[in-house]
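#dry-run=false #mode=assembly
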Amino acid sequence: MVLPIHNMQCETDHFSPQCARQLRPWPKERVIRFAGALSFAVGAAAQVAKAEVDTNSTSIFSPASAPAHLIVNLAHFVLLVTGGIFVVVLSLIIYAAIRFRHRPGEDESLEPAQVYGSDSIELAWTIVPLVIATILALTTARVIQQIQNPLRPAAAVDVQVVGHQFWWEVRYPKYGIVTANEIHVPVSDQASREPTFIDLRSADVVHSFWVPRLAGKLDLVPGHPNSLWIEPEKPGLYLGQCAEYCGTAHSLMLLRVYADTPAEFARWVANQKAEPVDDPSVAAGRRVFESYACINCHGIAGTSGDGHFGPDLTHLMSRDTLGAGAAANTADNLKAWIKDPGHLKPGVLMPAMNLSDDEIDALATYLATLK
Amino acid sequence: MNHESVTSMFGTGAQGAAGKRETDHSPGAVVHSWITTVDHKRLGIMYILYAFLFLMIGGIEAMLIRLQLAVPDNHLVGPETFNRLFTMHGTTMIFLVAMPFVFGFGNYLIPLMIGARDLAFPRLNAFGFWLTVFGGFLLYYSVIGGEGMTGAGSAPDVGWFAYSPLTARAFSKGHSTDYWILGILVGGFGSIATAVNLLTSIVCLRCPGMTLMKMPLLAWLYLVVSGMVLLAISPLTAAQIMLLLDRYLGSHFFDVQAGGSAVLWMHFFWIFGHPEVYILVLPAFAFASEIIPVFSRKAIFGYPAMVAATVAIGFVSVSVWAHHMFAVGLSSTSNIFFAVSTMLVAVPTGIKIFNWIGTMWGGRIRYATPMLFSLGFLIQFLLAGLTGIMLSAAPFDWQLTDSYFVVAHFHYVIVGGIIFMIFAAIYYWFPKATGRMLSERLGRWHFALFLIGFHLTFDTMHVPGILGMPRRIYTYGADRGWGTLNFICTIGAVFQAAGILVFFFNLIRSLRCGRVAGNDPWDAWTLEWSTSSPPPEYNFSRVPRVNSRRPLWDLKHPDDPDSNYE
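#status=ok
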């Protein structure tokens, strides 16, 4: 019986040069050249990425704290398993796609042998994935337990972080410290572990605490307190930012965690606990702060300002950035921020207070004494 | 046996019928006939045209997002606009593009493939379509009528999963969030109507001889999809109503300060949201299960296993939703449960991929455009599934979720999987719906451009996520090391846009002067290819009777029919 083959472009005259070109087998050197180009591209991309990240890395594959290490170890295992599956299945697909392609000149009238299935093969490719899934599930369950239910050493430091649109309130209940956006924690060494346990809450909408080199992310959900721990091994600055969309200025809700040596940490704590120096030479600036609506949102110890909608400014000068990482904490940026915060951080909730240039100068001079 | 005799077996009589009927061809009458139609084929085509319209709008939004992110510290659009762009891009692509594509193909194909003359409830069908249209326009009316967190005349800016309490009136004072709620609510009723219709039709209207286990796989997949729509859209609808009550009638479902729960919204949204992923991807599986056999010239490998895997995916996928919430701070017990259930989905999904390979194995594969897209789908869906397994390992997910890695992952599923198969399906069934073939040459250009663009954008996009770039940020500092990678992503987007333009050009040109297709251009085996192209309003002049899953194979090979082996 002859079967009509309809309208397939190449079947109509499969000896035309055009069809021969479309259907010729792939030459081996072309495949090799393609593979070479591909691996070069991947390598080059990796180089570019590496060169760029050396400065301020937030790569999840350069962990610097115990939970991040646990995650990376699991990630390597999962990547190994999924990578293996990928290579095997991709090879099967490519082999089938090339080996069983229609070739010009084949007998068109005969359909290939019809195979409807195979119980043994199908059973095999059900059971093997089931076994792999079971192994992955058990491994994952173990790491979940390790990270979510850790043993808590007596020396652990407690920090409370409260998410606000669009900044982080940071409290150390044991030390009576209130600060913002920049978290100082001690480095922990294996001999005397000193991890930091961070209690996460939100004052308004959902935020997410993510410092990739220290731990996985965890949300700050109103009415749903969460707890996370980090245990940095090396002193340094670890960058992060809010990872759950929280409104207009979400992009500039950055986060900095400083891992200090024990001595540095003690010094930092002592400084934060100190009462600010009352400097009469900047009384004019203090008057500006106290006589405008600044005090409704900002607190400065020893003044009439005790607001909580915005960051506490008692030790503003001990911080490296303004506006949750929106700008470096320099004298010029501080003035620009007071003049119009929305210019440095679009969508910020702090309004421009329409202060005169003299008032701004006085206020900035006063704030500069809050070390 | 030639196809004239195939046609005569099942009967079409389109030409004869057209001659007898007096039809008015003035533009007004044509528009009127389309607006008032209850014909499943016309409604199917209108669903797909509607999806094309919003594909362009959602695509423009995506291009603007990519241009904004191409270089660090960019101020092409501000954060307000950027937040609206990603909210509308996500909402549009899921509710106004992917869902209408799914229902459009279901509408068009199901009656033809099960040998019925229409769906069970034609007028409910039209009702569902027009509700969907109304929902889409309601959403976009917000651009004129709404006001969000900032400024007048804005689109919704709460993100496509709209986490509470950002949607509370305290944080979103204007009406744009209301348009978002109402648009989805109204469209949701349309989806439920269509799902009821498809479900009823597949159960009740199959032609004589077509037992459940003799249905084309596409019908099985749509049966499961319709059931899942009923299960998934209902909680979404309920949640939208609760949110409206919270916003306007003082209820406190999600109002934390009055004892409500922000986490409750997440559960409601994701118990819709995850089955939704399968609602979108099962039709892609359906197209693959029809197209791969025809172009490999072999019966589908392991039909009963494919059915079982489909039903298994349907069941398991309603118990995995909280894997979207690993970072919310659920108990370790919940996290382990949802990690395990998510990994289990990989098993039936794997069975499907293996069975497609089994179908190709030993075949004689013809690489026409539908098969090219199907091959792209197979490889890309494999990779999307494997990054899905990485995300199912909850601790790994704590790093990857809400980063660009997860954005790359779900675009791999939706673009690399679903959109590739939708293109394959359009190249495959366009001849049936219009009577003309799409150009193969333009189809190959479309495929090549889109494939290159897709991989440039979404392969690259995994990396900034690994380097700590969260999603939904309108810009980033030059010192973060994400610039080069984002620039490559944007170049890829340009290639994808070029591919789409070639595709639209192909559609318009082939509609006017494509090669005449005939009834059965691909030498295929299911019932829709037995009637004329385009089919007459009543599909089949005589109700067909079938003996196997491939009725046209049986007719073309009367000496060795499938019915001997099933």
